[in-house]
Amino acid sequence: MGTLELVRLERPTTSELAELAVYDQEAFGVTGLRSYDLGVVARAGGLYVGLVDGTVAASCQLMRMMDEPGMFWVLGFYVRPDFQRQGLGSELLCAVGAEVLRRDGSGLMLTASPDSTVALNLYLGFGFKIVEEVADFYGPGEDRFVLRWDAGATSTERDCHVA
Question: 144, 119 in Cβ contact below 8 A?
């Protein structure tokens, strides 16, 4: 397996958006972003793919928060099934953290299912803190933890070689 390369898609094609929508729904089911949602994110926020040997292995979508402009909200973060359990989640998180710092950001916020121990272990290990639990975030029975990572509050920059 090659190394992960983070690429921002600023003006993705219709076919790229359609492909990413399939992957997003593969990761998140009915709550996955659709191609037109991803198109808006590409223009108003940041639509990133993690490539391994030229193949989309992972993706992350970011939007800057209006009430706290230094923070970026993670709309979606996933590693495709064929690429899981190879350390790519950590690599993607490190690359996204570095990107946030390059864009004068101060951190990230995201949600995770309380039942998703793999995701929670990844985020908590990176330095995220649970700041809230929201019942029915995505509808009845779809509770979520809200997590926050403040850049500089952890040793993540050193661990990830973030400049």
Answer: no
Q: What is the arithmetic mean of pLDDT over 151-160?
A: 62
Buried b (16+ CB within 10 A) or exposed e, 105-144: bbbbbbbbeeeeeebbebbeebbbeeeeeeeeeeeeeeeb
131-141: pLDDT as tens digits: 999 999 888 98
Domain with residue 61: its CATH number is 3.40.630.30
The range of the structural domain enclosing residue 63 comes to 4-160
Estimate the crossing angle of helix 14-28 against helix 35-44, to 10 degrees. 110
pTM for this entry = 0.90
CA-CA distance, 26 to 7, in Å (whole number)?
A: 20
User: Whole-angstrom Cα distance, residue 3 to residue 25?
Assistant: 25
Q: Could you report the per-residue pLDDT of 49-85, keeping only the tens digit for each? A: 999 999 999 999 999 999 999 999 999 999 999 999 9
Q: Domain count of the chain?
A: 1
Written as six digits, the tokens of 126 are 């990176």
